[in-house]
Structure formats: C-alpha cells, structure tokens
Write a structure and sequence with these properties.
The chain is an alpha+beta fold and about 240 residues long. It has a single domain, classed as Gcn5-related N-acetyltransferase (GNAT) (Aminopeptidase, 3-Layer(aba) Sandwich). Helix content is about 25%, strand content about 30%. It contains 6 helices and 10 strands; from the N terminus they run E-E-E-E-H-H-E-E-E-H-E-H-E-E-H-H. The protein has an 8-stranded mixed beta sheet with strand order 3-4-5-6-7-8-10-9, with helices on both faces. Strand 7, helix 3 and strand 8 form a beta-alpha-beta unit. The mean pLDDT is about 95.
Length: about 240
C-alpha cells in the first residue's frame, strides 16, 4: 500500500504504533516430531555421526564451511557458535530418539525493522525429507511471526542450489530476485537468490503447514496424503 505525502509523492503506508521487536533468544521450541534447542557442544558427537551417514560431502557444497574431518573439529565449530546472538543456532532434536539430527539458525536479525532470516540449514540424512524437517522450519517461523511479532522472514541461497530453492518455494516463500555476484564463497562466485514471507502471508502459510503436519495427513507407511503445496492452494478442503 502506498499513499501520497503533502508534496504529492508516493510513500509507504505508516506503521501506526510500530515499535522495534525483541531479539530472538536461546529458547527451546517444541513440536510433535521434533524440538529445537540452542546448539551446544554436547550435540557434537551425535550430530557428527548423523552427518557421517551421508554417502558423500555434497550437502556441504553450499555451506560456508568445508566438511569437518573429525568429531573434535566439528565440536570446536559448535563451541564457537554457542554464545552468538546472530547467527542464533538451534539443534533439531528427534523427539522419538532424543538425538540431534540437524541444525539451522536465525540470522541477520534486525529488530528495528522486524526482519530476520533463516540460514545455516544443515540437515543430516536422518532429518532430510521427513516431517521433522518441515516442522523444524515451521517452529522457527512461528517463533518469528507469532512470539516476536516480526514483519518479514527471509530465505537466501546460492542461485545454483536447486534443492534450497525448491525447499523455499515449497514452504511458501516468495521469490524476490537474484543478487548477482553477491558474495565470494570458498573462492567461487555466488549469485544469491532472495525469498521472503511477510506477516500478512503468514496466517495462510501457517494453516497449510499445520494441515500438512497433522497426523491424519500421513499414511501408515509415513507417506503424505496431500502435498504441502495443495494445502496452500485449497486450504478450506
């Protein structure tokens, strides 16, 4: 929405009563399939083992770090993140096993503007393509929009990272464009694709995610009955 000021110029709509939002905290967020808790060194052994189940290192290609060659190296990296407030890293814990199976973070946090980004998404084979993976993303979105009242939630990825682009669109993010030659990562050029969800879109996205995550949306073998995209297209059914 735009309005005109006293000079006849178009300007953005006023945000009456807007106040800077609180920063996200080192909290635990609980769902049906998983919980998110602040990432710390105690998660290192199980997480390193979970990531080691991958056949190769392809899931590290678009991360800013190379694959750790040892559990101790991985533990040192985790230890270096524990006191950070931006990025704010979370471990994804499988409720059934009680073990960490991946991690992700809130980052580029701008309380004055009500904007934050989800990033550093690193899911092990035990987490990828499971309801837990979707629920982990939903828990952070819910925390951002409902608990903290942020206006905009971002997703950015290497333009060549097709799995990340598909994941963003599946979850309901809107593609906004490509920032060309945005970064140098591991000595390579990176064009960055930007995606976002804004607060007015969140209620419909939330309804679709809740419907997809519901127990009765899955068959006995764990396969989905309806896709997440279909719930967004026909939420009333």
């Amino acid at each position: 929405m735009t309005i005109q000021n006293q000079y006849g110029q178009p300007v953005g709509a006023p945000l009456l009563g807007w106040q800077p939002r609180r920063r996200p905290l080192h909290v635990t967020l609980t769902g049906r399939y998983c919980l998110l808790e602040p990432l710390n060194r105690k998660h290192a052994p199980a997480l390193f083992a979970a990531h080691s189940q991958a056949e190769d290192a392809r899931h590290w290609t678009w991360l800013p770090r190379e694959k750790d060659s040892s559990e101790e190296g991985y533990a040192q990296w985790i230890a270096s993140t524990e006191t950070l407030n931006d990025p704010l890293h979370f471990a994804v814990i499988d409720i059934r096993s009680g073990q960490p199976v991946g991690s992700l973070a809130l980052m580029r946090i701008e309380p004055a503007d009500g904007v934050m980004e989800v990033g550093h998404v690193h899911f092990s084979p035990l987490l990828s393509r499971t309801p837990m993976a979707t629920e982990a993303q939903w828990l952070l979105m819910q925390y951002a929009f409902e608990t903290l009242g942020y206006r905009r939630y971002e997703w950015k990825c290497d333009s060549l990272n097709a799995p990340s682009r598909r994941a963003a669109l599946r979850l309901g993010f809107q593609f906004e464009g490509c920032f060309r030659q945005a970064k140098v990562v591991k000595g390579r050029n990176r064009d960055t694709d930007w995606f976002s969800i804004i607060d007015e879109e969140w209620p419909a996205i939330d309804r679709a995610l809740r419907s997809w995550l519901a127990i009765d949306n899955f068959n006995d073998d764990g396969s989905q009955k309806r896709s997440l995209e279909s719930w967004r297209q026909t939420p009333e059914q």
